[in-house]
Specification:
This protein is of the alpha/beta class. It contains twelve helices and 14 strands. The strands form four sheets. The protein has a five-stranded parallel beta sheet with strand order 2-1-3-4-5, with helices on both faces. A four-stranded parallel beta sheet has the order 7-6-8-9, sandwiched between helices. A three-stranded antiparallel beta sheet has the order 10-13-14, with helices on one face. A hairpin with a 2-residue loop joins strand 11 and strand 12. Helix 3 runs parallel beside helix 4, helix 5 packs across helix 6 and helix 11 packs across helix 12. The chain starts with 8 loop residues before the first helix and ends in a 9-residue tail after the last strand. The relative contact order is 0.14. The N terminus is likely disordered.
Amino acid sequence: KQGTKKMKIPTLLATVAGVMLASSAFAAEDPIRIGVPVGLSGANSVVAPSVVQSAELAVEEINAAGGVLGRQLELVIADDASGAAGAQKAFDSLVFQKEVDVLISMETSAARNAGLPIVSRGQVPYIYTSFYEGRSCNPNLFVDAWVPEQQVPPVVDYLSADGAKKFFLIGSDYAFGRGMLEFARSYVESTGGEIVGEEYLPMDGSDWTAIISKLKASGADALITSTAGGAPNVTLTKQLRGSGVELPYANLAVDEGTAKNMGADAAGILISASYVTGIESAENKAFLEAMKAKFGDDLRTPNDLSVPQYEAVYLYKAAVEKAGSTDTKAVLDVLDEVSYTGPRGRIQMSKQHHAPLTMYLGQVQEDGSVKVVGTFKDVDPGEQCPEL
């Protein structure tokens, strides 16, 4: 058109270069997005807030120290409702709509299993931070929490040494509950004990009356339970105490935070965990002080479900820095090579995408605290995913 000035080539090139530099700078400043699908509702709602708090502290600390590769971290939280249907929605939203760079989460096994196909399709790394029944194997999945081979033997050995020979098993009817008790049954029988009963209630069930009646009639001299973390632990324990059950009682799923919520009902319960607040180390002291400083009176008790979440954020940071990128393949290639020394000690997911862990056998006290009665260093997770 007449009167229109043509832009000179050097000016055009300079403008394009400027736009490219600005775009590059903007990209470098984009946050690294960490997706956290977690059970804010449903069975895990008792413990999920502590998990979110741990993730928030890790992100705050890392960002204050300069972030990762010069980029800040950003948490994207989604409620998976503690189950399969909710997990499918949460994973799909985080991976395909929010386009997170990684998933780091504590979830029920039902939620994890439902989310894994989405992880595979979306090709994102997934660090699972919940103790679970074991043998969940996927090239994108890494686990920094315990499996039955690490957790069950100390409990059974302790009860057996105390004279228990007949065991009754109670669980939530899903992958975790059945998987844990299947291993417990096998271990009890291999060490000369007898299983005199094994009963399950749906994961959202809350009336244990009929099962408790069977327990009382069984002649058992010890009880082992494996219920969904959170609400089922609370309802079962309260009903056991209310019905006068005083058998030696080991719970394979209760965490320290839930035990505190139970109050006096939890007193005497045996737990086997990779984390208790009483661990005496500089790292654990610093962690607990930082949590108290950040959350004050709103602090939820750090526990064996929340602390692995905190450490997993640092493990992901280490992997991204070693890889020099958030590219999924690059991160997955080095996740088993990096380690982080935190509240639980040195953690490295080097054994078939799982981690050797120091385990603590504890007994819940009247005030909900846990007294450590045995320590087992660097317990191997055993054969979990030999094909990985």
